[in-house]
Amino acid sequence: xxxxxxxxxxxxxxxxxxxxxxxxxxxxxxxxxxxxxxxxxxxxxxxxxxxxxxxxxxxxxxxxxxxxxxxxxxxxxxxxxxxxxxxxxxxxxxxxxxxxxxxxxxxxxxxxxxxxxxxxxxxxxxxxxxxxxxxxxxxxxxxxxxxxxxxxxxxxxxxxxxxxxxxxxxxxxxxxxxxxxxxxxxxxxxxxxxxxxxxxxxxxxxxxxxxxxxxxxxxxxxxxxxxxxxxxxxxxxxxxxxxxxxxxxxxxxxxxxxxxxxxxxxxxxxxxxxxxxxxxxxxxxxxxxxxxxxxxxxxxxxxxxxxxxxxxxxxxxxxxxxxxxxxxxxxxxxxxxxxxxxxxxxxxxxxxxxxxxxxxxxxxxxxxxxxxxxxxxxxxxxxxxxxxxxxxxxxxxxxxxxxxxxxxxxxxxxxxxxxxxxxxxxxxxxxxxxxxxxxxxxxxxxxxxxxxxxxxxxxxxxxxxxxxxxxxxxxxxxxxxxxxxxxxxxxxxxxxxxxxxxxxxxxxxxxxxxxxxxxxxxxxxxxxxxxxxxxxxxxxxxxxxxxxxxxxxxxxxxx
Length: 559
Prior knowledge:
By secondary structure, this protein is α+β, with helices and mostly antiparallel strands. Helices cover 34% and strands 25% of the residues. Strands 7, 8, 9, 10, 13 and 14 form a six-stranded mixed β-sheet that branches. A five-stranded antiparallel β-sheet has the order 2-1-5-4-3, with helices on both faces. The protein has a five-stranded antiparallel β-sheet with strand order 6-16-15-11-12, with helices on one face. A hairpin with a 5-residue loop joins strand 3 and strand 4. The radius of gyration is 40 Å and the shape is elongated.
């Protein structure tokens, strides 16, 4: 076989272009010597006029291929019969029998799936490359298959040929695998941190059913800072929060954890939603001025039938009413947390019995090839048809958005339902209210009202007496320190009794230790002693509300 003619037809072999350039230089070298110039000899290799270096054209192709460190094999015809292997190939895989089909003579190529690639090269006449495949010798190679033209007439194999050129890339492959392993460990650390900072078990308030879903980004994306939480505030009210820290990795997860902890602490102050975000805004700037976060903080009060919320650059809450109509609560919205210089405000959206609300992060609706508003609109359509428990609604919304394990962004979804209760279930949730006009008759009226309501709700004598005492003390405190209008409200759920008194003065009471000679200051202390919990907050229209609650015994969960 004429290997020189084969090598001249292989422009795809690494180094061919360099050899062609060398031939050009050698062809022009005699002209330079005719001008009297003498080519400089290489250092350590003095020129020997008696034994000049051979030109590339005079070197046998077999000698060149035998000396290259890469693995080389030459096959012919539709069966890819082996015509040649160089020394490096033999050293790697052992001796090979020439003239045999590649499927028998080169089993390592068959196991790597390289034989179909040889067929493609013969059909297309164009080189093909298979990168970084681990062979049977345990090393990794990049294989380049190059068409080699027609065979010589004397060649008994016959047919067009393919030159297989394999470069050992084991060191690169191992380095890449170490890098991938390191990235996997970092991502696993971030995911573990993220999940440990999210609530392991969601709080389940009396009046709402709640479920949440968190889906981290795919393996090629570092975990982000999506988070959510449910916080029972007492007095039947519930705070719901969802947010997204910009950025990825452990740092974003750590910032998320700090913000979530701060929200829970601020929520205990029972402030309006916009004041909670105002505090978070300053804290976010202190944690890391280079990272910002979006957040929605909302409060549900079953007595009001509304969801009061404030948004810091976050996506709008979606609410589906009992008739299936979906409302987008997109006002008011301020800038993200950490930007500073903005005064947040609160808005509200109806959330009566039979309604479902959805809070979510941008990974659920944002896509690279479409507008964000289109994603929100698609989510609205999905919510309109999503029925069932909150967890079922969560799963349906995630599926409708096409979120899978390889999704390129984190997704957090929080679904809450205010169920419409009827029949026996409705009997477990009762409300009663009395307007107090003030004067000396207000306290006796409040005690009589509370006694009558608790008797009609069939509470046992001990709980009845404690409830009447708590109502009397709260009303007396409001009469002494508050201003009209005043109202006494009693509410029962399937798990607790709640007593609340509102008045027009915004001065919040606090528990203090009364001295033996003090004539007042014992009312709140008495309430705090006999009740399961108590608290006070300012109301949106001015004034305050003071409440306490009693956990019902298990046997009293139904009247």
